[in-house]
C-alpha cells in the first residue's frame, strides 16, 4: 500500500495554513512531522484522517483504511474502566469472544494487567497516555496517526511511553505518522523525518534516519 499526500493546500478563511505539502509515507514505518507551533501540523493530520477538508491536493492510500488516532491528551472515557475503554473501540471489530483475550494480551505486554479495572482518574497521566496508545494499537488499524502523544508527559513518563511505543511498533506492522516539535523525539522514533517551515507552511527538508 502506498500512502501519499500530494500538494495539499488548506485555507482557514484568508489564512493559508498549508501551502502545497507533498509527503510519501513509508508503509510499516514511522514518519515524524516536525514544525513550529501553529504551522498546521494538526490540520495536516486531520486532513489525512479525513476529519478536515482540504482546498486542493490529493490524499492517496488512506481512504478505506482503518486508522487509529492518538490525540495530544488522552481521550479515555472517564466513566469506563481500562478494560471498558479498550473494549469500547474493539466492539464490532472482532468477535466478542476475542475481545477480552485481546485486552489481556495488550495489557500484559505493557505490564498494566493489574490496572484492568481502574478508572482513568485513578491512573497517572503517563498511565493514561499508555492506555490511549495501547488502545490505538489494539484497534485493528493499519495506520496510526499520533499528534504529539508525549507532549503532556513529564520526562520520566515520556521515556517509559516512548519505549513502550517502540515495543508496540516492533510487535505489529503499522504505518505511523507522528507529529512532534521535539527533534530528539523525532530522531529516536522516526524512520523518516519531515521538517515543515512556517508562513507559508511547506516541506523544508526530509531526513531518512
Ligand atoms: N478550525 C479552525 N479555524 C480557523 N483557524 C484554525 C482552525 N484550526 C486551526 N486554525 C489555525 O490554523 C493554524 C494551524 O493550526 P494547527 O493546530 O493545525 O497547527 P499546529 O502546527 O498543529 O499547532 P501546535 O504545534 O501549536 O499544536 C493556526 O494559526 C490556527 O490558529
TrEMBL record:
Q: Where is the ABC transporter domain?
A: 3-209
Q: What is this protein called?
A: NitT/TauT family transport system ATP-binding protein
Q: Does the keyword ATP-binding apply?
A: yes
Q: Which SMART domains match?
A: AAA
Molecular functions (GO terms): ATP binding; ATP hydrolysis activity
| Gene3D superfamilies (UniProt xref) | P-loop containing nucleotide triphosphate hydrolases (3.40.50.300)
Database matches in InterPro entries: AAA+_ATPase, ABC_SmlMolc_Importer, ABC_transporter-like_ATP-bd, ABC_transporter-like_CS, P-loop_NTPase
Q: Which Pfam families match?
A: ABC_tran (PF00005)
Keywords (alphabetical) are: ATP-binding, Nucleotide-binding, Transport
**PROSITE patterns reported in the protein's UniProt record:** ABC_TRANSPORTER_1 (PS00211), ABC_TRANSPORTER_2 (PS50893)
